[in-house]
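We were asked to recover a plausible sequence for a given structure. The inputs and outputs are reproduced exactly as logged, with field labels preserved.

PROBLEM: sequence recovery
POSITIONS: 326
GIVEN STRUCTURE:
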């Protein structure tokens, strides 16, 4: 019986990651297809020097993993550039000249060493995807709200401790990753995001999450894991389209009954908190497929009651990861 439950746990964990991050995979697939389409239509250049021979025709510039520590400032001459890849290099700074590339749609500069994004990047009005994860960003001086076309922004795994008020304010943004930073609050930073579907602020130092929820009312995936949140805001119940709520590894003692009105919720991950019981209204979550309560001080009697309230939900509790055999 124990072995069967262990196997079930393994299967459900895999399912949760697949479902919770399906929007990520969808984005990546769309971006890959878009990049492939561009590559078919236009020649890819692998150095600035080669492109400068005929700069007006350069639309795709791929400098990834070329071991560069700086970018030729003459990159500004590529007025028709739509795709620029600088990832996995040794860049300590990003050239301000990139801000002059008014037709740029995709910018990948992850896995470098820069600490700041030039303010000139605020001029990239056609930018749709911006990936700056895994750098040493500690401050953001550019204005995201001026990037009116950006749909996908990844600033995860940096050293950000503070975001400006209403920094995150975009009509088109649907995917936002700001996990694995040093943020203590994001409430004042989250402005109007009518198109947001996925928001990950996990692995920070948040003690609360209470933005103006009407600003993110269309969100479907909300990830708050590995923070220091001790109380969930009942106003999360305003997120009527929410499908996945991930809040494991916090300090939450009570699950607000108002959240039982999240009719579209399919995944609820509450593991490793301080929860002793869930409200009886949890039975309202009729679409809930998976509920993880592992690592909470919940009695066997309470678990039995929760399972009775959610007969069609897989409830996972009291399985130690050390028990799982490879």
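RECOVERED SEQUENCE:
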């Amino acid at each position: 019986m124990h072995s069967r439950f262990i196997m079930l746990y393994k299967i459900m964990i895999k399912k949760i990651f697949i479902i919770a991050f399906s929007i990520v995979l969808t984005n990546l697939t769309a971006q890959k297809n878009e990049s492939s389409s561009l590559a078919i239509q236009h020649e890819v250049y692998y150095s600035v020097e080669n492109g400068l021979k005929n700069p007006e025709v350069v639309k795709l510039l791929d400098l990834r993993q070329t071991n560069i520590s700086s970018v030729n400032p003459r990159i500004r001459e590529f007025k028709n550039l739509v795709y620029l890849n600088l990832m996995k290099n040794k860049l300590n700074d990003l050239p301000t000249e990139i801000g002059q590339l008014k037709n740029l749609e995709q910018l990948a500069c992850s896995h470098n060493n820069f600490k700041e994004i030039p303010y000139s990047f605020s001029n990239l009005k056609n930018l749709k995807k911006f990936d700056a994860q895994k750098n040493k960003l500690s401050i953001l001086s550019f204005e995201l709200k001026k990037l009116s076309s950006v749909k996908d922004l990844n600033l995860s795994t940096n050293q950000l401790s503070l975001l400006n008020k209403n920094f995150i304010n975009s009509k088109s943004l649907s995917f936002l990753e700001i996990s694995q930073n040093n943020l203590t609050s994001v409430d004042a930073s989250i402005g109007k995001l009518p198109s947001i579907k996925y928001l990950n602020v996990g692995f920070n130092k948040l003690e609360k999450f209470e933005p103006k929820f009407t600003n993110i009312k269309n969100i479907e995936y909300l990830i708050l894991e590995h923070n220091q949140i001790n109380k969930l805001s009942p106003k999360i119940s305003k997120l009527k389209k929410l499908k996945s709520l991930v809040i494991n590894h916090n300090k939450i003692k009570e699950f607000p009954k108002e959240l039982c009105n999240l009719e579209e919720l399919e995944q609820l991950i509450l593991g490793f908190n301080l929860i002793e019981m869930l409200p009886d209204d949890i039975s309202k979550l009729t679409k809930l497929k998976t509920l993880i309560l592992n690592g909470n001080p919940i009695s066997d009697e309470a678990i039995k009651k929760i399972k009775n309230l959610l007969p069609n939900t897989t409830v996972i509790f009291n399985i130690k990861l050390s028990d799982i055999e490879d």
